[in-house]
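Reposting from the mailing list since nobody answered there.

I have sequence plus structure tokens for a pair of proteins and want to know whether others read the tokens the same way I do. The first protein:
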Amino acid sequence: MPLYDYRCPQGHLFEQMAAIADRAQQNCPACGQDGDKIPSRVSLAGRADPGPAMEQMPQTWRGTYEGNPEYLGQLRRQWNARSKLEEKHPELRGDRRPVLAHEGRYRARPLRAGDPPADP
């Protein structure tokens, strides 16, 4: 059943789940009078998620569940969406230099082209 917004003659606003056939009027939970269906409010709350950056995408064969086609398709869709967003908002672009090492001592902070090697 869908959720509808209602207002009673006393001015109380309330939401009610109702069958489509019964959606025109519902009893107000505050005063018991019949409330009329009104247009629903627009929700502007929430937070946009730009998706994972290139640095957060899997870097190894194991990271892709050994090339799982469904997972690769999901990654491709995420990356296409992220690429379009970066074209529109350049400030979201991350470090595009290639990763040279990402294991061992570079696990926490991968070594990128142009970075000085970390001390052992």
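The second protein, same order (residues first, tokens after):
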Amino acid sequence: MSESANPAAGKTSLDLQDILNILPHRYPFLLIDRITEIVRTKRIVAIKNVTINEPYFAGHFPNFPIMPGVLVVEAMAQAGGVLLLTEFPDREQKLLLFTGIERAKFRRPVVPGDQLRIEVDVLVWRGSAGRMQGKAYLDTKLACEAIITCRLLEREPKKPEPAGTAEPAAEPA
């Protein structure tokens, strides 16, 4: 696999642009900002800088903003996705779906100004399905942990429309 096909090739850290080249997620649902450690198919460490500008803080909770725990777990899944998707040069034709959460425990609230360090270790990866242990830390204190499972699927290719069947574009008003 060439370095252009694998943005993580030979790297031990990834910046935001590398992450965007691997994951399909975009703002406001991209929940990791940087990768500080990557060991192919084994382990990844990601950073999420939590800011008051996150859209969920408007309602969770007014005057007492806390990052929803399910989004902390989603950030773990995204980090695991970066780790596993780097192994597939044709990742644009694949979709890594989150299929399960087990033993999730939320130990500390995550609030604006915090920096989450997300550590994900692969427990099992068998070609199209995986199981990972995720832990999110605030400094040295465990904030959340969970076992997450995922499955790699082929994206459905877009079928070309037969010639002459496409509707004309609407005129602007």
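Reply #1 (J.P.):
I read it the same way you do. The longest helix spans residues 69-85.
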